[in-house]
Amino acid sequence: MFALPFGCEPRTRVHTRLESGGASENGCRRRCLVRRGAAYAPNAAQTSPGLLRCHKRVTKRSGLSRTRAREAVTPPATPTWSVSRADVGESSATPVAELAQVSYYVREHLAVIEDVSLALHRYEIVCLVGQSGCGKSTILRLFAGLVRPTRGTVYFGGKALHRVNPDAAIVFQNFALFPWLTVVENVMLGLGSSIPLAERRRLATEMVDMIGLDGYENAYPRELSGGQRQRVGFARALVTHPTLLLLDEPFSALDVLTAENLRSELLNLWTHGSMPTQSMLMVTHGIEEAVSLADRIVVLGKGPGHVRAEIPVRLRHPRDRKSDAFQELVDRVYKIISDEDVYVTRPMDTTGMPIPRKGNTMLPSGLRAPSMPSIAPRPRVPVSDTVKRSNRVNGGDDDANMHSGRASEATGRLASNQANAHPQRLEPNNERTSEFPALPPVRLGSVAGLLQLLASESSPVVDLYRLGQALQLDVHGLYPIVEAAEILGLLTLSEGDVALTDAGHAFVAGSVDDRKRIVRGALLVAPDARLIQIICRLLRQAKHRRIPESLVLDSVLDRHFEPAASRRQLDTAIEWGRYAELFAYDSVSGELFLEEDNGTPENGQERVRRSETVPRADSSKNSFGSREMNQLSDATDELE
Ligand SMILES: Nc1ncnc2c1ncn2[C@@H]1O[C@H](COP(=O)(O)OP(=O)(O)OP(=O)(O)O)[C@@H](O)[C@H]1O
Known about the structure:
Elements: H1 13-20, H2 25-35, H3 44-47, H4 54-62, H5 66-73, E1 97-106, E2 110-120, E3 124-130, H6 136-144, E4 151-156, E5 159-160, E6 168-171, H7 183-188, H8 197-210, H9 226-238, E7 244-248, H10 256-271, E8 279-283, H11 287-293, E9 296-301, E10 306-312, H12 324-338, H13 346-349, H14 385-394, H15 406-414, H16 416-421, H17 444-455, E11 461-463, H18 464-471, H19 475-487, E12 491-494, E13 497-500, H20 502-509, H21 512-525, H22 530-541, E14 546-548, H23 549-555, H24 563-579, E15 584-586, E16 591-593, E17 597-602, E18 605-608, H25 626-639
Parallel strand pairs: 3-8, 3-9, 6-7, 7-8
Antiparallel strand pairs: 1-2, 1-4, 4-5, 9-10, 11-13, 12-13, 14-16, 15-16, 17-18
Adenosine-5'-triphosphate binds next to helix 6.
């Protein structure tokens, strides 16, 4: 199945609101929501992790100063962001969308779902859980108007829906990106052709920025990690400003740390009222995921699909997964799903108390046991220097690793026991031929996920071994992520224990811009980030602020690493440099380049940003004069 967000009309109410003060009902409502922040909402500047970049968006669009723009969208300081948007009492009598006694049959006689009634209210996240084949995705498609009910009615905004829903968008599990289109072009597809091309590009670029992919606008999907691809999926859905966001297992294809990071960023956007969306319906197989995100969990039964229980989740955000209330709810949902004979009547649903008839503890097919990691104490196993060195050059096993795919994740898990039991037996890596510092080849999204996880722990110090167990990562998979965080000064590792530093706490609490600033500052001074520092200096020396990647490979990396390891080092440097917006990369020409200089001195160095005006060298290596190449090549000796 492949579909794009629906609707072609430009829907610009949020931007209108931000620029003009907002006159629309929706804009007003959302503004009120933000203002009520004094009573319930978070202070983005203090507590907002992740993806939120509204202040930057406002700056770009309205010309406000950055500080003023931040004030325009940041609610007043408040103790905590703890109340669900569904709890603000703004849900109106008319649901955002509703299935009223809907049945859906295929081939005229095969019932997929039967007599399902389900209302989605304003500012509510509803999670659909249930065994494989119980009709979860079908319900999503009904709300999207992609399929029509055989009986019953689908309502949207109180009106019967008879066509594809233009105010809904879907985020898919498998990202569904066009590989031949860049990030911005993929997002533009969500907008439809009735909007002028330049406007589509502008809106898409803004959304890419908001979703935390600034610096990747012109990257192709193959250059992105799974988490980044799913960010594009979110951007493509959100760029249409959908009233209803439908999520079909959006985190299930991601490794656990990336999923953790993205999930918390999404929740943060939602909680801050930064999304144009009024209601979210998410299909998930993860019970803990449902309990951590949902305002209401709907459990479906199968044969044919029907609603077995609706369980309101009244826990406050951020939800403590170790709390008794959280775990009780997980157990309750688990019991309802796993025991077909637990019969739940509708009046009982609101209390969330099922009536067990007889025991059945088997995990149904397609249902994952509670999967979000929690960490317990354990005996200590230090990580050997050999493992550290080996992992720096070779990377770990998870999707976190930039050079391994899903298959290697599974392999890594299988290998985990041996590796954890005998880390000191791992063979030293022989690729490196000198003491040039190697970057651990991991994605920074995984680092963010790890930090997020550590911050949610009650203990300030967490045991690395237990952490690996909880994440189902062996030492090869986990250590490079920890090491990357260590290089960036975000955590400390001592005798097998990891602890967040002040910078690590600031990173977790910070916005996307804050996070990038922290990483940028660290990369410019960290001794182990010498490769990135050399690239930055070469770029500043280059005539057009562009260098071919071959220069870095030939003149720097190949002196110190075997060719395959050189490539991995360069890919890592590109990923980190892009994230920090230190430089950009053109994968077609294989060139690194500086973006427009915004003149902001940082750590004694000048930060540079994108510019269409930077002259672009020809994609062939020859466009760099041999004299310049020689000069730059000579310069590397000095830089090293
Ligand atoms: N167009 C169709 N033709 C034939 N069978 C269909 C069609 N649509 C849905 N089904 C069947 O209906 C059942 C429910 O499908 P659906 O994808 O909605 O379930 P699901 O709960 O989302 O499953 P999963 O959790 O495995 O993704 C499945 O058995 C599916 O094969």
